[in-house]
Amino acid sequence: MIAVAAGTNRIDPYLIPALDGVAYGLLVFVAASGLVFCFGVANILNLAHGLLYAIGGYTAAALLDGGWASLALALAVGVLAAAAAGVLLAGLLTPVATGNHLSQALLTFGVALAGGSLLVAGFGPDNPQVQVPAALEGSVMVAGHRYAAYRLVFIVVAAVLAAALYLVVRRTRAGMLVRAAVDDPEMVACLGVSPARIRAGVLAAAGALAGAAGVLGAPIIGPGTGTADTVLLLSLVVVVLGGLGSMAGTLLAALAIGEIQTLGVALLPSAAPFLLFAAMAAVLAVRARGLAGRWRAA
Amino acid sequence: MPLITPWRSRALTAALLAAVLTTSTACGDDAPGTSAGGSIKIGLLASLSGTYQAVGTEIRDGFQLYLDTHDGKLGGRQVDLIVADEGNGAQTAVPAATKLLKQDRVSALTGIVGGGSVAGVTPVLNETKVPLVGSNGRPELKDVSRVWHTSYLSDEPGAAIAQHVRDNVKGSVYAIGPDYQGGWDELRGFTDAFGKIGGKLANADGKTTFTPFPATTNFLPYFARIKASGAAAVYTFYAGSAAVDFVKQYAQSEIKDIPLYAAGFLTEGGVLNAQGEAARDIYSVLNYSPDLDNAENRAFVAAWKAKHDGSPTTYALASYDAAAVLDRAIGAAGSDPTPEAINTAIGKLGQIASPRGTWQFSTTTHSPVQKWYLRQVRQDGRALSNTVVGDLATVGR
């Protein structure tokens, strides 16, 4: 059932949900890309990925005071802390055989539980308040609709992050190694690049991405006791929908999730509880590889 | 090509994990108190861990405050208070309550945050013939012979504010709330009473919009529908982190100028601090506000502020009143205050003086017949606080 809006334009009421879907989707993309990297490149199933996001979120809540300097500081601290947590995870994972998903899942899930408890012990059980810079606190008019200024700016920032990520993967030596490791891990090992180093590097990068998403996305998916689970769940759905090998697939899946969660809910509120998982089940049923095929080139 | 490629299997692993993660588990453990001879044992069950930790802590502290301000005595007897953790629901609450009732053999039970926990504990109460003076959650119960509540029934806030909304809003009202028992009850209370006095809902099908709970963290899609509906006001009920998300997003959305009416929990206690400026001007209905002007309340708020940061909430008040009820009932139960005698005495208490104003137990539901207040979030010194702006209906049956 699609409700027909009063007035001349029936698309009009859905403009803001559609725009918000882009913001939400880009956040999911930045948050999930780290997990996709880990899983796709280093073949590590990191169930503590949501925890890395939560570290960023709590950092934002603790450091943001309404000024721009605090945002920069929170971003730096959040990225470093989450990246450090990623390296720590890589160290813990050293004895676990690559590709042994059950052991990895148990280990990282244990870390996620322990880390989540530590965060709650440190920051309290209530969802902390996140104070964005005062200039972004208000709302702006978009095509005659009011929309949160922060989310609008977030769309731009997240798009820049996504583009930067693409360029790093496509154009830098690190990116080449990462892509090579997707295609032929043995050959990369033969080239003299230690798998342990790739593992640590990939987990650090994943942590940095999750940390950045956690800090910047704190006003959208805020820090709290359930944050780590929410983000991990969304990231896993991205893996299912978008497959593992391609950034394009990940982006497409993340944007699809964003639109399903906002535009989909606005169009079909009665289906809201299961819309996301119905979409996931449909994609799995039709195409177990996800929306995009295995990606090598672009 | 193998039937299952390595990363197809990974995608399936991810799908399985996603499925597993949608159901979460929780655990809690008890903290048994010590017992001393010659005193009366009271069991307090509240969620000291898990989702409702904040509410559970308020309930424990409210009861403790009454004891601290009354020489640790109820009805002239030294109280041996045994506190146990309710956890997240009946699953953890029932074992904890069973221990209090059967092993510690308490004379009365109090507290309990979740309605589901109360429903789970009730059979054990009837088996052990011990009264419960509950201070928060109250489900539909067939047999309330041993169950008393100092809080409210979930549909009462909405029923109490309906007339005010009808009188002050020119146009239709959009009703929206969380999709679980508490949300259904809260919203039904409003929509039933509002409909009876000729109020019209702005919702597309004339029915309340329910959002998935607790999954909904982004309310923007719903706000778009409210905008399109042309509603003149919104009535809602959310609590905890959902209340923070709802209020903060509302203030930045395209419907920020539409007046927001709510059951008081939307802006009660810690959530108001988290909402900050976004909560300003929201109207809510509740049975208590810390700025009520009566002698009991002034003493209560002063005693609370001496021990805690911030003002007491309705949760702490209900627990404080549960202690007051037990105080008078144990005193009236005579030289041998057995659980049965206490239960009978509670039924004969009549008017109870309280920081919320005088109230009494309904003879049919065993929950308060009490006055409800209209509050608005306003500046109070340096902080925002719920300020009473008027009296609403006296509700109870």
TrEMBL record, chain A:
Record GO terms (molecular function): transmembrane transporter activity
Bilayer topology term: Multi-pass membrane protein
Pfam families: BPD_transp_2 (PF02653)
Transmembrane segments: 21-48, 68-93, 105-124, 148-169, 201-221, 233-258, 265-286
Entry keyword Transcription: no
Compartments (UniProt record): Cell membrane
Matches recorded under InterPro entries: ABC_transp_permease, BCAA_transport_permease
Protease listed as a keyword: no
Record keywords: Amino-acid transport, Cell membrane, Membrane, Transmembrane, Transmembrane helix, Transport
An example Gene Ontology CC term for this record: plasma membrane
Main location: membrane
Recorded superkingdom: Bacteria
Family assignment from sequence similarity: Belongs to the binding-protein-dependent transport system permease family. LivHM subfamily.
Protein name listed in UniProt: High-affinity branched-chain amino acid transpor t system permease protein BraD
Source species: Micromonospora noduli
UniProtKB/TrEMBL annotation, chain B:
Signal peptide (UniProt feature, chain positions): 1-28
UniProt similarity note: Belongs to the leucine-binding protein family.
Protein name per UniProt: Leucine-binding protein domain-containing protein
SUPFAM superfamilies: Periplasmic binding protein-like I
Domain spans labelled Leucine-binding protein: 39-381
Lineage, top ranks: Bacteria, Bacillati, Actinomycetota, Actinomycetes, Micromonosporales
Keywords: Signal
Pfam families, sorted: Peripla_BP_6
Gene3D superfamilies: 3.40.50.2300
Transmembrane regions listed in the UniProt entry: none
